[in-house]
Every structure is written in C-alpha cells, then in structure tokens.
Please model this.
Amino acid sequence: MALQTYIIYKLILVLVVFAFTMLIAMYSTYAERKVAGFLQDRLGPNRAGWFGILQPVADAVKLFMKEETIPSVSNKALFIIGPALSLLTACMTGVVIPWGTTITLFGENFPLQIADVNIGILYLFGVVSIGVYGIMIGGWASNNKYSLLGAVRASSQMISYEVAMGLSIIALIMTTGTLSVGQIAAQQHGWHWNVLVQPLGCLIFIICAFAETNRAPFDLPECEQELVGGYHTEYSSMKMGFYLFAEYINMFISATVISTFYFGGYNMPFIGRFVHDPNLLTLCGVVFLFAKIFFGIFFFMWVRWTLPRFRYDQLMNLGWKALIPLSILNIVLTGAWMMRHEIMAYLNF
Amino acid sequence: MQPLTNRSKVVVNKEMSLYEKIYLPAIISGMMITMSHFFRKKPTIQYPEQKREFSGTYRGQHVLKRDENGAERCTACGLCAVACPAEAITMVAAERKNGEEKLYREEKYAATYEINMLRCIFCGDCEDACPKEAIFLTDRTVKPENNRGSFFYAKDILVEGVEKEKRIDVTRRQTAAVLEFKKHKEFDHNR
Model:
C-alpha cells in the first residue's frame, strides 16, 4: 500500500472511531437515564424529540451554557488538566481494539484496527492506569475535602482492582499465547470464545472492569450521598461534562474490551455459512461486535440500577481477599491444565 | 406487642453462609427482579397532554356565579369571609345604583372581592356559608405563578362570564341531592 493511502486511511479510521466513541458516549447518557427509568417503572426522558432522542443534545447545550467556576483556592492549571487528562486517556484506548477483520477495496486490504500493537494488552492497561491520574489531579486541585476523599478512594480502588484484573488477564495470555488484541480476537472464530476457556477469569475481569470504570456497585469515588459527588464536587459546566463523558467512554471501552477478550469480538458462529462476500462478512462482524458492546453497556447499567454501593471495607476485602486469590488460583489451574500431559507423564499415568 | 404489618423481620447478626458470601446468586436474583420491572407497564401520566382524573368531590379554584339573567349573585354579606378558617377572603360592599339591575341581582353587591389563593385551604366552608349560592369551589386547579402578588384573585378571575359558554359548571359537586339538602332550612347551616 502506498504511504499516502496508508496515512489517509489511518486518519479516516481514527476519525471514525473517535466520532463513534463520542456518539456512543453521548447516547450512553441517554440510555442510562432511559434504562434507569424503565428499571424503576418510569419512562425516562421523552420530551426532547421522538422518545427523547435529542436529550443528549439538550444536555450538552445545557452544560456548555452553564457558568464555569474555578475555586479561587484551587490549583488552576491542575484543575483544568484533570478533566482533560481523564477524557484524553479515555479516548486513547480505542486505538488497539480490532473493530472488524479486513475490508478489501480497489485491490487493497484495509484492516479495521487502527494499530495492531503486538503488546496491545499492555498498552490498554497502561492507558487505563493513566486514567486515574485525571481523577486524582482533579480531586487534589479542587482543594476540597470531599474531592480529595473521592480522589483518594478512586486511586486506592484502581490500584487494588488493577492487580486482580492484570492477574486474570495473565491466565488469558497463557491460553492465547499473545499480547496482541487483534490476534486474541482472531483466535476466537467459531465457538472458540475465551469465556468458555476462562470462565473464572472472565468473571473476575468483568468485576474489575466495574471497579475500574467507577461504576456502581463500586462508585465510591463519586458517591453523592457521602461525598457530594466526590472528585468532581467543585467542577461545573463542560469540565464536569468531561468527567461524566470520560466515565461513559470508559464504560464503552470496557464493554468493548470484555467482548473482544472473552466474547469473541467480531466473531459470530455460523455466519460464514450464510454470508460469503468477504467485505459483507467484515461488516457483519462489526455489527456483531457492536451488538455485544451494546449488551455490555446495558449490562453495566442494569447492574448499576440493581445493586447498592459497597462499603469501603467490603470493597477492599473483595479486592484483596477474594478477587486476587481467585485470580491466582485461576492462573495455577490454567497452568496445570496446559501442562497436564507433562504432569501425567511425570506421575507415570 | 402486635406487629403492624406481617412483613417485620427480627434482625439477627449471624455470619453469612458460603452461598451468601459468594454474592453472585443474590446478585442474579436481584437483577432478575429489576429486569421484570423493565417490561412492566409504566404508570406514568404524560401530564400536559394527559391529566389525572380528579375525584368527584375535588375542591379547586373558586367561582362567583351569576344568575340565569347574567347578574352577579353575590351581595357582599361577608358570611364567607367570616366562615373562612384561613381568613383568605376580603371584600368591599357597595350599593347598587339605578340602571345596574342587569349587573347585580340585589341592591347590595361586592365592589371588590379578593381571595388570597396562598392562604386558602380549599375547605369549602365559604360555599356552605353562602346564602345566595354565589360562591362555589370547582374542579379547576389554581395556576402556578412566578410571584406572590398574582395569587390575589380578584373579581376579574373569580366571576364567571355572562355568555353561556363562559359559565362555569358546578354541577359535579352540586348534585341534585346536595341542592335538595340545601333547601331544608331546618338544618342549622341552611338558615
């Protein structure tokens, strides 16, 4: 492929992924309110447009129009960097996700993945860990006790659950033998979904994903009842909107990562029997991936509006005393299963 | 002591069993409960388009009635103001001049008649007290306003129109039985 086509195609792909991320995050806010309404025997927003479909636009206009206040005692530079960093890191994660296989146009192959980094998983983890800095900096710069408490909670929660998340991923890496997200997705064609190989790892990963995105039942950093909104207490206008947006993008990316790692990504069993055109097949794959992602987002919301929040000691107990030992056990079991022939031979069976 | 409901439970601080400690079964059953609510019929009433039906005895905004010829029935006797437990009604009486027979039914009428809708408790004592069947509470609601001053309802709001279509219907509560009852002067408040 010529360098110019390559650059243009990558730029277009980046723009499309960015636009879709923003669009989905925007409509996640609408979906959240709608799902919350339906789960509580209400209707949710239904005034702006058909079934309230323009509600996110109205919300965005509202946020932009709000007065922007920066506390006089705050650290102004950090106060602005906080939400910006939060949103930036949230948007950066979409780079290594394989959104589909390859589209062939004019004799050229266009893979639907911005960068198939061979250490894609490490990249994902690195970027997600930077995400907590946005919350920490914002909470610290606010110069407010509630914000600081929220930030401290966020960072300790992130650190605790990242350990369990990483350990659950190690078992996955052991079975797949690669750190590339693209290859992990490609390996799961047909029914070779990783959730069937790693059910325990999948469960731990999903629980940790809830904690990493600060979603209920792990939304201690921003619990309204105790901390008046936690780290974004002092934020108003679009800076606050950035934090909320980052949360929804994180939720979208988490749902994407869960479906790519464990639920087959863009793969769907049996679709090859009905669709034979390769480009159409790729598009079907994209549709399937998004169907899985949307169910994942719905699942996040479903859990949020079902479960009450964990207490702080329960959160730490669950993280350190339950999830980490379980994920280590998972690694040991996976290793034992992979080495079963050698172990059998050693034991003379 | 007898429990008020049968739903009260004695709290025991017992250790959770392993099944309970796993959380997941409880979480799944909880999620099934919320999902059942997802598909339930919503009781929402879409307010401006749909309105909740009031009960037959709903007492809302007052009306000062006119008689069949279009003359105001109120004679500014002040019984409503006396009966009012919230002291919401004030009025100024005036004498009817020649040529005003079509406007006012009797020689005396209310030059001003004000009800403070913020004080009013909508008890309906004014309509019981009224000897001329002039004031009634209707099934209309008092509109929200932005300032307190707008809640002093004067005659321009309270008196119904002369034209037939502008008359306010009070028959919902003033049923035949009620009117029949009011005719019996032997009852204390009908005198």
About this structure: Residues 131 and 326 of chain A are 26 Å apart (CA to CA). Chain A has a mean pLDDT of 85. Residues 71-346 of chain A form one domain. Chain A has one domain: 71-346.
